[in-house]
Specification:
- The protein contains 2 helices and 10 strands, in the order ααββββββββββ.
- The protein is mainly β.
- Strands 1-2-3-4-5-6-7-8-9-10 form a 10-stranded antiparallel sheet, covered by helices on one side.
- The chain has one domain.
């Protein structure tokens, strides 16, 4: 399988808030100050076409966040996404959900939940398309300190009921090798 840098970056970016939340203690969650940020990114393609994404995100200081994004395409078409989520320190779980509204007015929805386990996590996610058809994924990961490896597996089931399974092992090193 060829390495897909964009999928890796997307996974890393989406995982960072989760990893931060999972590694936060109850006291840290109570002591965080709410923050907010905005960004505007404009991309220009080879033909000179541009698209712009405007994003705002806010945390509530209690492990939760909300975010809004607006993507304006080269023809002026606008797609928006609203999402929110949070970490529950008592249950060591993270959840997020949101809605994407496309330029044609149709909407899709998504939700995901992650539960910390002793040495990893379990994750469930669902994406429902504008036509009402859903794709679900169930996954887990675990860290083996003796071998310095993370083992991940995921089953994705499409709207037709057919499933695909993915398993991978990543060498991250042992605690003493850092």
């Amino acid at each position: 399988m060829k390495f897909d840098h964009s999928q890796f970056m997307r996974a890393a970016i989406l995982s960072l808030p989760l990893m931060y939340a999972v590694c936060t203690t109850d006291a840290q969650a109570r002591d965080r100050t709410p923050h907010s940020a905005t960004s505007t990114v404009t991309r220009t393609g080879p033909a000179g076409n541009t698209s712009t994404r405007q994003t705002s995100v806010a945390t509530n200081g209690q492990g939760g966040f909300s975010s809004a994004s607006k993507l304006t395409g080269p023809a002026g078409n606008v797609t928006t996404r609203q999402q929110s989520g949070g970490y529950n320190a008592a249950t060591q779980s993270f959840s997020r959900s949101g809605t994407t509204t496309y330029a044609n007015g149709k909407q899709s929805n998504f939700n995901a939940s992650v539960q910390a386990t002793g040495n990893g996590y379990q994750r469930t996610a669902t994406h429902t398309a504008p036509d009402g058809k859903s794709v679900t994924s169930q996954g887990q990961a675990s860290y083996n300190a003796a071998t310095g490896t993370v083992t991940q597996s995921r089953v994705t089931t499409g709207p037709n009921g057919k499933s695909a399974t993915e398993t991978r092992t990543i060498a991250v090193g042992t605690p003493s090798s850092h």
